[in-house]
Design goal:
heterodimer, A: about 270 residues, mainly alpha, MetI-like fold, B: about 290 residues, 2 domains, 13 helices, globular
Chain lengths: ~270, ~290
């Protein structure tokens, strides 16, 4: 990348794949796995020296047995299923409404002018601050949480769809028009395929914000759900189960975010590196 | 009329000729984005203000309704009587401490993992996991460890702000010019000099972009930490107001938070201009 003419001794050549050993080739994931393993071992081992206080901290072996208990008894699945319902409603609504607003903003220049500052104001203000009000107004059920999740996760979709439409190749549009394409063809054949990568990238950001919405909603007012479970186990000083729930949320978050990233890479390979 | 045209001509000649084929824009075309943008905000506020006169609410809904004028009035009263300063200073100190800690930890760590592939490979799973997870999930744990009050807020703000800074610094360091690094190294520079002379100045636009993200996350962190784990501060004020149906106070708090984040972002932009004066224009547009 720096220079093709001069071989650079400081940087190992990337094309010498055949000569690499297994360890060299998978160096990064191996080191990563090793570090995670070391982290858990160190966590477990530190209590051989430091006195262990179950009301303050937990140990990996207790956490994993707590996790196993929650999985076997089905509590974890029940809580996750409860939390998933408002998330799905709110997130789906955010996709539909956000992408529509974003595309119209990008395609109709005046709509873009009119809405861009407004949306920026909304995006910049911490809308999660409206959560107490929404919960009081809509009650502690699904609707209040779904609306919080919707409000938090809609803006990445709006802004990314907006940016995506503006990045559409004008030449392609002119080609479709010259060949007699209708407005519908423009949307289906040019705009949607070029905007889709942006929307998926927006989804990656929106997932994280949506999860914040789930937790805020459930910390405020809930009698079930994963956020409620974390708060409840915290209040009960059942730290092993609390850590187990935190760990499951972390795993879900990583799977969702990295899953979308993987989908981006495999579905839109030409976008990699942008 | 002639004056208007003169202004018009003046503007169109003064405008940078970024697109040579474009005909000179008319005054309306130039003002259109601003007029429409401001207009839509004003229109929304006006509609909101007029809504109680247009629709009659059910008594239950009325309790939750407020108008922009009421919000502005509340905000004015809070500043005039000085009741805002105590909660605002509590929130601001949590914000400043958390963000400051995130900068102190995030920048050097970002440079380190950008320069060391081994360290990067080892820390990557943790960074990915913590960055993907909403920080809020740690709040009950943080509350248990640090108690109600300033320090649990600082920790939540810190965790939130750390990762955008860390990841952007890392990206910036990774993208710095290999040729420059090799030149500096050939002249006998140590790793410290490479970081100081090449890597950090190169990464500056990335770092500033990360700082901007971090400010947003930090404000979010202050809000949620105060909602659930604090005794005073703006967030607490808002939760209490929501419980007492003082809707205008909730919105006033929201505006103060938004203002805080806008002021900080503005400061960062000034800093960016100051720090990247030496940079060629095309490279500064990250």
């Amino acid at each position: 990348m720096t220079d093709q003419t001069l071989p650079n001794p400081a940087v190992p050549a990337d094309d010498a794949v055949t000569r690499e050993t297994f360890v060299e080739r998978y160096r990064k994931p191996l080191l990563g796995a090793l570090a995670v393993l070391l982290f858990f071992i160190a966590w477990q081992a530190v209590f051989l020296v430091v006195p262990f206080n179950a009301l303050f901290i937990s140990k990996p072996n207790l956490i994993f047995s707590g996790l196993a208990e929650l999985v076997v008894s089905g509590e974890l699945w029940a809580d996750l299923a409860v939390s998933a319902v408002p998330f799905l409603y709110g997130f789906t609504a955010a996709v539909v409404v956000g992408v529509t607003i974003g595309i119209v903003m990008g395609w109709r220049v005046r709509v873009g002018y009119a809405l861009d500052p407004l949306m920026t104001v909304f995006y910049a203000s911490p809308l999660v601050a409206l959560a107490p009000l929404l919960i009081v107004f809509f009650g502690v059920g699904v609707s209040g949480k779904a609306i919080i999740i919707f409000l938090l996760s809609i803006f990445p979709f709006i802004f990314n769809a907006y940016a995506g439409v503006r990045a559409v190749d004008r030449l392609l549009i002119n080609v479709v028009r010259s060949l007699g394409g209708k407005e519908k063809d423009l949307y289906l054949k040019v705009i949607v395929p070029s905007v889709l990568p942006y929307i998926v990238a927006g989804a990656r950001i929106a997932v994280g914000r949506g999860l914040i919405g789930v937790l805020v909603g459930e910390f405020f007012a809930a009698s079930e759900g994963i956020g409620y479970a974390i708060a409840k186990f915290g209040d009960l000083f059942a730290l092993d189960k609390m850590f187990a729930c935190i760990l499951s949320v972390m795993i879900i978050a990583v799977v969702l975010t990295e899953g979308i990233r993987w989908a981006e890479r495999s579905a839109f390979p030409w976008r990699v590196g942008q | 009329m002639s004056e208007l045209q003169a202004v018009d001509a003046n503007i169109s000649t003064a405008a940078p000729a970024d697109d040579l084929e474009a005909p000179p824009k008319s005054l309306w075309r130039q003002l259109e984005p601003t007029v429409l943008g401001v207009g839509s905000i004003v229109a929304l506020l006006a509609l909101w203000e007029a809504l109680p006169y247009l629709v009659t609410f059910a008594p239950g809904t009325k309790l939750f309704f407020t108008t922009p004028s009421q919000i502005a009035g509340t905000l004015w009263t809070m500043f005039a009587t000085g009741t805002i300063w105590a909660p605002l200073s509590v929130s601001a100190s949590g914000f400043a401490l958390g963000l400051g800690l995130a900068i102190v930890v995030g920048l050097p760590l970002g440079v380190l993992i950008g320069r060391s592939p081994t360290l990067n490979a080892m820390l990557d799973p943790f960074i990915t996991a913590f960055n993907a997870t909403p920080r809020l999930v740690f709040l009950p744990l943080v509350l248990l460890w640090f108690g109600l009050g300033l320090w649990s807020k600082v920790v939540i703000v810190f965790i939130g702000a750390l990762f955008p800074l860390l990841i952007n610094t890392y990206e910036g360091v990774r993208n710095s010019d290999k040729l420059l690094i090799n030149v500096v190294r050939s002249f006998g520079a140590k790793e410290w000099d490479i970081a100081r002379l090449v890597v950090v100045p190169n990464a500056m636009p990335y770092i500033v972009a990360g700082l901007r993200l971090a400010i947003g996350r930090a404000v979010l962190g202050v809000v949620v930490a105060e909602f659930f784990g604090s005794e005073d501060g703006l967030g607490v004020m808002m939760v209490q107001a929501a419980g007492q149906y003082k809707v205008a106070v909730v919105f006033a708090g929201l505006i103060v938070f938004a203002g805080l984040s806008l002021v900080m972002t503005g400061l960062v932009q000034l800093l960016e201009q100051r720090l990247t004066r030496w940079r060629p224009q095309h490279a500064a547009e990250y």
